[in-house]
Amino acid sequence: MAIEKGHRFGIDFDDAFPQGLVMVGDVSPDNEYQSREDRAANRAARQRVDEVTGKRQWKVMVTDPAETRAKRASFEITLLADVQPVPTTSEALPGMRPIELEGLTAEPKVAGQGEFKYQSYAFRATGFKVAGSGAKSGRSATAGEAAAKAA
Q1: 20: phi > 0 → left, psi -120 to 50 → alpha, else beta; which?
Q2: Is 60 exceeded by the pLDDT of residue 137?
Q3: Cα separation, 89 vs 97, whole angstroms
Q4: If exposure means fewest CB atoms within 10 Å of the residue's CB, which of 36, 76, 84, 108 is most exposed?
């Protein structure tokens, strides 16, 4: 039995990131590459759509405090949602906030260059968990609740 390339494994947030994650910056659309000609012609940037779920892709830069190697501590996570996900926690420092993700999946991939390659993962999630909900309550913020909070 073989596992096909691109298979996404569901994983619990607490198992993947035992010390949690720190979001750096804001959630932004994951846009397709736009050439100079497209920019010069003022063509609108097109947001990527996930081929598996059909949902729009958003990206967020995070830092894993449990990672000991500086080069691997910060990375992007792709959020899959029809509307822009809104974090449910407040900032701990300007531009930085602790977060928990729901609907987390991990896709194995090879990272690095030349002879310095290593096993890595492409992480995707469906949104942010409500602050302080923990893994036991199982309650998560829907896009509507998060938008209502932000307003």
Answers
A1: left
A2: no
A3: 7
A4: 36
Instruction: Please state the length of the chain.
Output: 151
Per-residue pLDDT tens over the stretch 6-50? 899 999 999 999 999 999 999 999 999 988 888 888 888 899 999
Q: Which two tokens stand for residue 7?
A: 């298979």
CA dist 10 and 27 (Å) reads 22
Average pLDDT over residues 59-67: 94
Contacts 24+ apart (CB under 8 A), 70-77: 72/120, 74/24, 75/123, 77/21, 77/101, 77/123, 77/124, 77/125
